[in-house]
Design brief:
The chain is of the alpha+beta class. It has one domain (about 1-119): 4'-phosphopantetheinyl transferase domain (Ribosomal Protein L22, Chain A), CATH 3.90.470.20. It has 5 helices and 5 strands, in the order βααααββαββ.
């Protein structure tokens, strides 16, 4: 059963200006994400940012009471997967979310993501 759906889009240039800012990266990305993204281009960082926004919307809360690092995007066999921590995990458990599927894409100017929360 689908419990929530979220989507987000961002201009890659907005993120491109921030990826060398340590404070930005530490606020929005876990250490594992930062390690992965430092080897990637700006569109990947923008895609991960979008994915976190989409997941927060699928949880039904946005980032009210959730830190960006409570939502972690990892790659499993080249496919993006969602790991929840802290408040995001608590909210998901409380409303019966068992899995969140995520899709991330980009073109030259934009990154986009869609998340589906299932229970």
């Amino acid at each position: 059963m689908i419990i929530g759906v979220g989507t987000d889009i961002i201009e890659i240039k907005r993120v491109e200006k921030l990826i060398n800012n340590t404070r930005f990266m530490e606020k929005f990305f876990t250490s594992g994400e930062r390690e992965y993204l430092k080897l990637k281009k700006a569109e990947s960082t923008a895609g991960y940012f979008c994915a976190k926004e989409a997941v927060s919307k699928a949880l039904g809360t946005g980032f009210r009471g959730i830190k960006f690092t409570d939502i972690e995007i990892i790659k499993v066999n080249s496919a993006p997967k969602v790991l929840l921590h802290g408040s995001a995990l608590d909210i998901a458990s409380r409303i019966g979310i068992k899995n969140i599927s995520i899709s991330i894409s980009h073109c030259k100017e934009y990154a986009v993501s869609c998340a589906v929360a299932e229970g």
